Amino acid sequence: MPNLTEADAREAIVRAMRTLDAKGLNRGTSGNISIRWEDGLLVTPSGVTPDILTAENIVRLAGDGTAARRALKPSSEWRMHAGILARRPDVRAVVHCHARHATILACAGKPIPAVHYMVGVGGGSGVPIAPYEPFGSDELAQAVTETLEGRLACLMANHGLIAVGSSLNRAMAIAEEIEEQAAVYWGTLAIGGPNLLSETQMADILERFASYGQKA
């Protein structure tokens, strides 16, 4: 991502929003994506569906939230994106979506426990829930940023899912995997509940994940 031009980054956000829609991880105008850019960020605009979203629609914001004069209105959640990027220098992209199973659990107040080792892609032995605050508010931005501390994903109470990563591709992959884990957990609840992995077992998994995959 550091080698992307701004035009490339804008196109990547458009493709990612359409991918979320195509994979059923988002619907309509819900959800939003940002990429760290220079001293601020590039973020999706408010109320524009993926099918008509263009690279020119992506809003460039300074760190204080100011945009170019003729830019579209940014996502109502821009404060959340800006807050995460300001607090997490390891994060270059933020993906927020209303994936069905993750949202069901978020609305039921159920964090995702260690139901499967792949829960660890979220950076911990489970996926926590940020407390409810109104969408677009400073309070929501703070709640989500604090809940994400040291993690790569969390649920948002009565709202949805958020994932972060060192690249947009990584954040997208984490969002998709956490939705899968939400579906697995939801399914186990329907047949008597899960057999959870222990903290020791999950600690081993997180250590293994540190050297998993391609690092170049």
Secondary structure blueprint with pairings:
Blueprint lengths: L5 H17 L9 E6 L2 E4 L15 E3 L16 H10 L5 E5 L2 H9 L20 E2 L7 H10 L5 E4 L3 E6 L2 H22 L9 H11 L7
Parallel strand pairs: 5-6
Antiparallel strand pairs: 1-2, 1-4, 2-3, 4-7, 6-7
**Strands ordered across the widest β-sheet:** 3-2-1-4-7-6-5
Could you list the spans in which at least 5 consecutive residues all have pLDDT below 50? none
Specify the number of helices. 6
Largest sheet: 7 strands, mixed
Q: Distance between the terminal alpha carbons, to the nearest Å?
A: 13 Å
Please state the structural category: alpha+beta
Q: Please tell me how large the radius of gyration is.
A: 17 Å
Mean pLDDT: 95
Beta-strand portion reads 5-15%
What is the approximate shape? globular
Query: Share of helix among residues?
Result: 25-40%
Number of strands: 7
Helices and strands, in order, run as HEEEHEHEHEEHH
In brief:
With 216 residues, the protein is α+β, with helices and mostly antiparallel strands. Helices cover 37% and strands 14% of the residues.
Q: What features would you describe in this structure?
A:
With 216 residues, the chain is α+β, with helices and mostly antiparallel strands. Helices cover 37% and strands 14% of the residues. It is built from 6 helices and 7 strands. Strands 3-2-1-4-7-6-5 form a 7-stranded mixed β-sheet, sandwiched between helices. Helix 2 runs parallel beside helix 4 (138-147) and helix 3 (100-108) packs across helix 5 (168-189). It is globular and about 55 Å long. The two termini are 13 Å apart. The mean pLDDT is 95.
